[in-house]
Design goal:
alpha+beta; 6-stranded antiparallel β-sheet; 24% helix; 286 residues
Length: 286
């Protein structure tokens, strides 16, 4: 016997069951951080700062060198076209300027006139304040006079007519001849030792050789045979240097070094703006 057919529901209120599905929210892809961009920016800024520092340092150094050169030319009364070399030493000039002073200043003067003679000079100053009213720590000048230049002041070395002037072994050796009754010439050699005396250079006889006989100054003056030589041969005059240089520079020592005479001058503790650097000194009498 067949099973009865069950009719389908006709009511609209009845529905077919559905399966619920959950949709995930949309998440945009994460962008990768470009960390190298700020690094490049900082690198570029650093390079620009270094370039700016180098340019500023070079400009400051060139300006300072020219300023020092002009001051030296004025103080030492040099020709305006003198080839004066200026060295401001190592280290940052900007940093030194911030501190208020320059560590080292070296100036080379090819030709410095000292009356009738000329010398090459080197000026060395340390602790030079930017404020010209403040004193420098040290200020030294070394002037070197050649043998040829020294010969121009032969009259200061001896009153006799000199036939030769040579420098060596720490002394100035001068030679002359002394006539004996107009019959023959007697060769005479004198070793002079230079020194600084009251702003001048003094030439003191050290050793005298007459006809191969070595005498002291006292022996020459007391010798009956050669006493007549003493007057002219031993007579010398001090050669003034102070009146050719700023009053601030004091001559401290004079020595024969090799084949040159070296003069040392000192201006320690004097402000560059002091009138002592703008006026000439004077030679004091003994």
């Amino acid at each position: 016997m067949a099973e009865p057919i069950v009719p389908l529901p006709t009511s609209t209120s009845e529905s077919v069951p559905t399966v619920a599905t959950e949709v995930a929210p949309y998440v945009p892809p994460r962008k990768r951080r470009r960390w190298w961009i700020p690094v490049i920016v900082l690198l570029i800024v650093g390079i620009l700062l270094v370039i700016a520092y180098i340019v500023t340092e070079r400009f400051a150094r060139d300006y300072a060198q020219q300023l020092v050169r002009d001051q030296v030319v004025q103080v030492l009364n040099l020709p305006k076209d003198s080839e004066v070399g200026v060295d401001l030493g190592r280290g940052s000039l900007i940093v030194q300027a911030i501190r208020g002073s320059i560590d080292t200043v070296t100036v080379e003067v090819p030709e410095l006139r000292l009356g009738d003679i000329s010398a090459s000079a080197v000026l060395l100053a340390t602790g030079v304040p930017l404020d010209s009213a403040k004193p420098v720590e040290t200020f030294r000048v070394v002037a070197t006079v050649s043998q040829e230049s020294l010969a121009k002041i032969a009259g200061y070395l001896s009153a006799s007519d000199l036939t030769q002037i040579t420098l060596g072994n720490g002394v100035i050796t001068v030679k002359t001849q002394f006539s004996i009754l107009n019959l023959f010439e007697l060769p005479v050699t004198v070793d002079l030792e230079p020194s600084a005396v009251n702003g001048a250079i003094s030439f003191a006889p050290k050793t005298i050789t007459v006809a191969d006989a070595e005498l002291s100054v006292e022996e020459l003056r007391n010798s009956p045979e050669f006493s007549a030589l003493a007057g002219d041969l031993l007579a010398s005059r001090d050669f003034c240097v102070a009146d050719q240089l700023p009053d601030a520079l004091v001559i401290t020592d004079v020595n024969v070094v090799g084949s040159a005479m070296v003069i040392g001058l000192n201006g320690d503790g004097t402000a560059l703006g002091d009138p002592a650097f703008s006026q000439l000194g004077t030679c004091k009498q003994k």
